[in-house]
Amino acid sequence: MSQIDDVMGRLTADIDAVFLFAPSDSLFAELAEEETVVVVGAENGPGAERFVELPLDFTAIGDRVRFGVEGALEKEYVVEADDILCLGETYADELDTAVRVRAGEFTESGVYDLFVNSRAEPGVIRNVLEVAVELGKKGQKGKPVGALFVVGDAGKVMNKSRPLSYNPFEKSHVHVGDPIVNVMLKEFSRLDGAFVISDSGKIVSAYRYLEPSAEGVDIPKGLGARHMAAGAVTRDTNATAIVLSESDGLVRAFKGGELILEIDPEEY
Amino acid sequence: MVVSNFRPLMNVPDLVRTLFSEETAVAVAILVLFLGAVVGYLIWRFTRSMLEQAGVPEAVEGTVFERTLQNIGLSTVGLVAQLAAIFVYALAIFIALQTAQVIDPTQFWTGFSAYLSQLFIAALAIIVGLILGDKASLAVSERLRSIKLPQISILAPIVKYSIFYVAALVALGQLGVATMALLVLLGVYVFGVLFLGGLAFKHLLAAGAAGIYLLLTEPYSIGDEIEIGDRRGVVQEIDMFVTHVENDDAEFIVPNQRVFQSGVTRFR
């Protein structure tokens, strides 16, 4: 037994901060007396002073840790040299996982940045991601579909694109996140072209052909024209692009011309 | 007005006594009692079915008043119907007693039947006020739910207690309590809400009215290059109150009424 305690002791020795991914009020109160505690989750249950909001319900603990650490670095709760103990739940609905990680260990992927520092509101990006994921899961009438959403900086995006046909969303004032919209987006996803969504979530247009200059856009080879257009439009404007791939079914987010996030709808 | 309606009823005992002998008057009194019971029952049935037909039970469902009544085994419809029936019973008993000359037709007792009707209307006003206030506050808070501001949440209670206040005023007025001071208070209050509220929200109301026009007709849409006043740029967002116009240096947030004050120039 003492060896196990040794191992656990090494795991928890000299840590600078504790990240709680499954905050129960009592646990938080106990830990907060001695350590720097950062709560990471969908909501700030115990009302902690240091809190990083998770915009997505990441299934893998690795993604959650990564997002939490990037958020905490951004908010300057921790510095890169800090050792962090992450307590979370992987299988059960209670505390069952401890991970020790150094804050500077990740090359910054910008996942936190994607949500919090984008032009569009975080809730809008989350809603669009959810729509894309749902579309990826079910497809259109059982067949896989592809879709491209350009979120934020809509004025500029509209000027860097042209209509492929009449805009079905003209004068319609619908916002992503309205319950009726998911069905609508699903129906319109069979149209070619991109959806343009404004900073506040209004669906400005469907059926747009994006024509940004693709010079210097570096996306993984093998991805198709849809991804190239997404990467290029985010490099030319301050928008964020969310792409559902028709061929491999993954949802990818681009910002500043780079691939930031990759989600598999099936795991989500 | 209510009092004059009941004048003929009060003359009934006198009429009966002039027409019939003492013994017959007692018989008539008993008949009146019996008739009162039947009419009261019919009124109870009629009110009940009428209220149910009008959909009152669904309308009051879930209000605090209805829930309180249900706790003591009553319902709003039942209560109103019973009040109406009790009113008829009381009137019948009163007329019967007068006909049989059990009580003296003094000043107090002649006023009694008129007072009875006022009491009934006062009770009705209180019930309607309680339910209406509750409903209105529910509707207001529901409408404002998307606005997450602590200042907004006081609006619903204000509406509720305003309605309670008016209902209490009506009830007290019916009972003949001097309500002049309360009326003045109400006047001051309404003046404050309308005048000061209008003053405070003047610009917001003007912007909102202009915004409704802009959203309905869309003279310009997201992506157009426009000039409002001396603010020139690409439209990024249009909402109810403001238009976001962005150029290379800055993003202008222009109140919508400016569109009508200075007009819009669209550039092709």
Topology summary:
The complex is a heterodimer of chains A (268) and B (268).
Chain A: H1 2-12, E1 17-20, H2 25-32, E2 37-41, E3 51-53, H3 61-74, E4 83-88, E5 97-102, H4 111-116, H5 122-138, E6 147-151, H6 154-159, E7 161-163, H7 179-188, E8 194-197, E9 203-210, H8 225-236, E10 240-244, E11 251-255, E12 258-263
Parallel strand pairs in A: 1-2, 1-4, 2-3, 6-8
Antiparallel strand pairs in A: 4-5, 6-10, 7-9, 8-9, 10-11, 11-12
Chain B: H1 2-5, H2 7-19, H3 22-53, H4 56-60, H5 64-71, H6 76-99, H7 107-143, H8 155-175, H9 180-200, H10 202-217, E1 225-228, E2 231-238, E3 242-246, E4 251-255, H11 257-262, E5 264-267
Give your account of this protein's structure.
- The complex is a heterodimer of chains A (268) and B (268).
- Chain A is α/β, with parallel strands linked by helices.
- Chain A folds into two domains: 2-109, Pyruvate kinase, C-terminal domain (Pyruvate Kinase, Chain: A, domain 1, 3-Layer(aba) Sandwich), CATH 3.40.1380; 118-263, YojJ-like (1, CATH 3.40.1700.
- In chain A, 31% of the residues lie in helices and 22% in strands.
- Chain A has helices at residues 2-12, 25-32, 61-74, 111-116, 122-138, 154-159, 179-188, 225-236, and strands at residues 17-20, 37-41, 51-53, 83-88, 97-102, 147-151, 161-163, 194-197, 203-210, 240-244, 251-255, 258-263.
- In chain A, the strands form two sheets. Chain A has a seven-stranded mixed beta sheet with strand order 7-9-8-6-10-11-12, with helices on both faces.
- In chain A, β1, α2 (25-32) and β2 (37-41) form a beta-alpha-beta unit.
- Chain A is elongated and about 70 Å long.
- Chain B is of the alpha+beta class and 268 residues long.
- Chain B folds into two domains: 2-200, no CATH class; 219-267, SH3 type barrels (Roll), CATH 2.30.30.60.
- Chain B contains eleven helices and five strands.
- Chain B has a five-stranded antiparallel beta sheet.
- In chain B, α6 packs antiparallel against α7 (107-143).
- The N and C termini of chain B lie far apart (70 Å).
